[in-house]
Specification:
The structure holds two protein chains of two kinds. Chain A has 19 helices and twelve strands. By secondary structure, chain A is an alpha+beta fold. Chain A has three domains: 117 residues, no CATH class; 137 residues, no CATH class; 172 residues, no CATH class. In chain B, the strands form two sheets. In chain B, strands 1, 2, 3, 4, 5, 6, 7, 8 and 9 form a nine-stranded mixed β-sheet that branches. Chain B is α/β, with parallel strands linked by helices. The chains are: A alpha+beta, B alpha/beta. Chain B: One of its GO terms (biological process) is spore germination.
Chain lengths: 523, 414
């Protein structure tokens, strides 16, 4: 049943054929002489200001050494305390007999002197550059065609903050940061299970960004994990700035307006997705994790549905499904009813709408377009500006433009209400990317309403759902559990059943271990 | 190649949108919402003579109608419309346009030449027909044909019969409402408080009755300058589809009890010389028919009525069961009196079955009905030769919040 959903797209397959895997193009061995190594490094990197090359000698100047690192990326205290100080001060004081210079000295230093946890030997320039540019320190010993790479990453990072785009009243206040180590830490703290897998990849031919595929070995369906890895392996770009690049490379249908990855900066969301057998993708430098596969219903759910009691959660969910409908269809319904079907509006309302539209120079569609477009402008402008000014824009735009547009007779007050309702409804969608989609579709539906009335609204409604029924996210149908009807999953859909009812994991992602509760198995 | 095909498909699609779309787009403020229509016969023949002089050969109807349309003027509905620069000198929320002609569609299209807004009938609330039109042969059905046939019109508009002319009913200026037709529409829905009006009859129901040749009653409406009164009933004969007469307010109350349409209202009864007023909450009726002889059928109505005592000028001790029982009997007698008055009028004088006996027979005794349906309240008129009796049972469910307003009883002046 599952294999049917796993249908690699034509473009994916051709990409796979065309491109070789990311292997280092060349591997230049390190020189044995220290001087040559150092000058080669300086030349390759262009001897930048932040390159630190610190030569020193040990064993009464018989052995020349040097540390190479990038200023700012390394924790200089660590290099001072654990490397240079150990070698220069404590080694002579210990009274150990030193081996002859060259490779033996290097091994001796590696095994007996250096007291940091992550240490590695490398023999090529490329491997050395990769690590040094990522914040490691290279220790060269004259006479050895090798280098010791010491993990000394210690750049300034942002502290763990509250997730800005997904605030909650109840629930953890931690959000992902740009540092992937922090992010894996945040996830692992929530999932203390040996089956948690963090598979590492590097993406970006030049940016060489770290990427982590997180999943539960015994829950996630192997086909999904494999497919995620296959698609990630096809990525062939210079640089990857944000997880959005990844999302666009691995999505099933790049023509669809609907997002096919869930984007979150909440580690608790990632953890709960892992327990449902889904796969998370974390990218270094991006505080936004991706979760695949995703369904439409998941995007309308919020973690708070589970943190609050089930009645509250259920009500909030119903509200959000209604909000999703309103966010897309309410301006269109207004246009259709006002221009084509005033008979469907209750009499008194029809008269008062007619009264408020008296003197409005535009047809309802233009009026709606004007207001919705203004709304979009305001939203966009508010995003660009710093927070305090952004609020001012909201007030200026919302109150002043709305009020004066009405009193100038450009739009009717009912239209302002409809637009405000639409905007609020789209803010109620927990997934920002889905809300963006809705904002986009809204215009299409409005156009159909202006041309064909309610008939057009119904047509676009059907068209949207035909598309949704056809869409997949990593092979999982987008409307699951509605359209491939998985009745077990309906417990956690529009209704959010009490947690004690959910003995099985959702079937949507086809988990290999589907039991949540061991006791009292449900029939 | 593929590109050209795409462009061609897109062009065809666009044409479909641009040529077929926006077909009947009319902005809401450009529609003239017709909320009430009054149908009269014209008072003078001047217009008709003029038309005859101009075009003597054109097809003509048997009779001409004077139709008054009530349009909503939305600007007048908004308080403070003047400040917002919307001009409306009279600040009236409605506009009545009257026009004369022999076809209602002709009149409707003639209005489009005089009004800035196209008549739009989907919000039509009331159709008021004058007594003269209703009494005239065929004119009643003729007048309604346009309203039933045109798809834009709804079958849910209420139909009422004006005592006298219909046009003045729409020309009142109600004090607490801005739109006369909406005001009439609301008044006609107050059947929970009174049984003296016929519950709303919709255009669709009138049509059913016209087609089925059943007699029916429509609400009667009267008006003066500022208000209307919806009370009483206009009785239509099922075969001729003509108005045969009006029932008064109390007779309408009796009719409502007999046709099981009482939703509320009150009944006065005298205990000694003092009034006790009974508030009706529910009422139902049951018909028993003795159909052994077609010529002398016998029908017995049993009316069961429940309610509360809401006003009592007689200081009765309602905690006493006997007092309540006596009162129940008194109220029952009052119901019987109302019903008998009504029966006397419609059965003996009008000989028109608005009591629903015909449809009772149709439902319960279809074989018999097939034989007699052409001789029911016309022809041999089995209805008129039948015998109708009424019995009423009353249950007082509650005697009010207090037992007695004062303990002292009234001194009887002998």
């Amino acid at each position: 049943m599952f294999r049917k959903y796993m249908r690699p797209t034509k473009t994916m397959a051709s990409q796979l054929k065309r491109r070789p895997q990311q292997t280092p193009a060349l591997s230049t061995p390190l020189f044995a002489r220290l001087e040559e190594n150092l000058s080669a490094i300086k030349q390759t990197l262009g001897n930048p200001q932040d390159l630190i090359v610190r030569p020193f000698t040990i064993d009464n100047a018989s052995q020349a050494c040097a540390v190479v690192c990038i200023d700012g990326l390394v924790d200089s205290d660590l290099i001072n305390d654990k490397v240079v100080k150990h070698i220069q001060l404590m080694l002579p004081a210990s009274g150990k007999t030193l081996p002859p210079p060259g490779e033996e000295m290097l091994t001796f230093l590696l095994n007996e002197v250096l007291s940091t946890i992550e240490v590695k030997r490398e023999t090529t320039f490329e491997a050395m550059y990769d690590r040094v540019l990522a914040g490691d320190t290279a220790l060269f010993v004259d006479g050895a065609a090798q280098t010791i790479l010491i993990d000394s990453r210690g750049w300034e990072t942002r502290s763990i903050d509250e997730p800005v785009s997904e605030g909650l009243v109840r629930g953890p206040r931690e959000g992902f940061t740009e540092n992937i180590r922090d992010n894996t830490m945040l996830v692992r703290r929530r999932v203390r299970d040996c089956q948690l897998r963090f598979d590492t990849m590097t993406v970006g031919r030049r940016s060489k960004t770290d990427l982590i595929i997180a999943y539960m070995q015994d829950i996630a369906h192997p086909a999904i994990v494999q497919e995620v890895k296959r698609r990630l392996a096809t990525i062939d770009v210079d640089e990857v700035e944000e997880s959005g690049f990844i999302e666009q490379w691995i999505e099933d249908d790049f023509l669809s307006p609907f997002p096919q990855c869930q984007v979150t900066e909440r580690p608790d969301k990632v953890a709960s997705a892992l327990f449902q057998g889904r796969v998370a993708i974390l990218l270094d430098g991006s505080p936004m994790g991706l979760i695949v596969p995703v369904t439409l219903s998941v995007m309308l759910h919020s973690p708070e549905d589970f943190y609050e009691r089930w009645i509250v959660g259920t009500l909030a969910r119903m509200l959000r499904y209604i909000a999703a409908f309103l966010a897309v269809f309410s301006p269109a319904l207004y246009v259709a009813l006002v221009t084509y079907h005033p008979g469907l509006i209750p009499s008194d309302l029809a008269f008062s709408i007619a009264a408020t539209r008296e003197g409005v120079p535009f047809p309802a569609f233009v009026e709606a377009l004007l207001m919705v477009a203004t709304m979009e402008l305001l939203q966009e402008a508010g995003l660009r500006l710093p927070k305090p000014i952004g609020q001012t824009v909201g007030i200026v735009g919302g109150l002043v433009i709305g009020e004066s547009a009405v009193s100038a007779g450009l739009v009717s007050p009912v239209m302002v209400i409809v637009v405000a309702l639409t905007a609020i409804a789209s803010f109620a969608i927990p997934a920002y990317n889905l809300a963006l989609t809705f904002r986009m579709i809204r215009f299409g539906v409005m156009f159909a309403a202006a041309v064909f009335g309610l008939y057009g609204v119904v047509l676009t409604f059907i068209a949207i759902f035909i598309h949704l029924a056809n869409l997949t996210s990593l092979g999982v149908p987008y409307l699951t559990p509605f359209a491939p009807q998985l009745l077990h999953d309906w417990k956690d859909l529009v209704l959010r059943a009490p947690v004690t009812f959910m003995r099985k994991r959702p079937e949507t992602a086809q988990p290999t271990d589907d039991t949540r509760m061991k006791t009292g198995d449900a029939p | 190649m593929a590109d050209r095909r795409f462009v061609r498909t897109a062009l065809i699609g666009l044409c479909a949108f641009l040529t077929a779309g926006c077909w009947d787009q009319v902005q809401i403020e450009e529609r003239g919402f017709v909320i009430g229509v009054a149908i009269d016969f014209p008072r003078s023949t001047a217009a008709e003579e003029k038309a005859d002089r101009e075009a003597p050969d054109k097809p003509e109807g048997r009779r001409r109608f004077l139709v008054t349309h009530q349009f909503v003027v939305p600007g007048g509905l908004v308080s403070g419309a003047q400040e917002r620069g919307i001009q409306n000198s009279a600040n009236q929320a409605f506009l009545n346009l009257a026009s004369e002609g022999d076809s209602l569609l002709e009149i409707s299209s003639e209005l489009a030449t005089r009004s800035s807004r196209i008549p739009f009938y989907q919000h039509l609330k009331v159709v008021i027909i004058s007594e003269a039109v209703a009494r005239s042969n065929y004119a009643f059905a003729d007048a309604l044909d346009f309203f039933l046939r045109d798809p834009e019109l709804r079958r849910s508009s209420k139909v009422m019969i004006a005592k006298g002319d219909a046009r003045p009913v729409l020309e009142i200026s109600p004090r607490n409402e801005k739109l006369p037709a909406m005001y009439i529409n609301s008044v006609a829905e107050n059947i929970r408080k009174t049984a003296r009006m016929v519950p709303e009859v919709r255009l669709g129901e009138v049509h059913e009755n016209l087609v089925n040749e059943l007699s029916f009653a429509l609400p009667r409406i009267t008006s003066n300058e500022n208000e209307v009164k919806v009370a009483g009933a206009a009785v239509f004969h099922g075969q001729s589809n003509r108005l045969v007469g009006f029932l008064g307010e109390e007779e309408t109350e009796g009719l409502n009890f007999l046709t099981d349409r009482v939703k509320g209202g009150m009944l006065k009864t005298a205990v000694g010389r003092d009034l006790v007023t009974f508030n009706v909450q529910t009422a139902s009726r049951d018909i028993r028919a003795d159909i052994r002889h077609k010529e002398r059928m016998r029908f017995v109505y049993t009316i069961t009525c429940e309610g509360v005592i809401d006003e009592s000028f007689k200081r009765l001790n309602y905690l006493n069961e006997n007092a309540t029982k006596t009162l129940q009997d008194n109220v029952a007698k009052e119901i019987e009196r109302l019903a008998r008055d009504t029966i006397r009028k419609v059965h003996k004088q009008m000989k028109t079955d608005v009591l629903g006996l015909g449809s009772h027979l149709k439902q319960k005794h279809p074989h018999l009905w097939k034989q007699i349906k052409y001789d029911w309240d016309h022809g041999r008129n089995y209805f008129a030769s039948s015998d109708i009796d009424v019995k009423a049972n009353v249950f007082i469910r509650n005697v009010g919040e207090v037992n007695m307003t004062e303990t002292r009883d009234r001194l009887e002046v002998r």
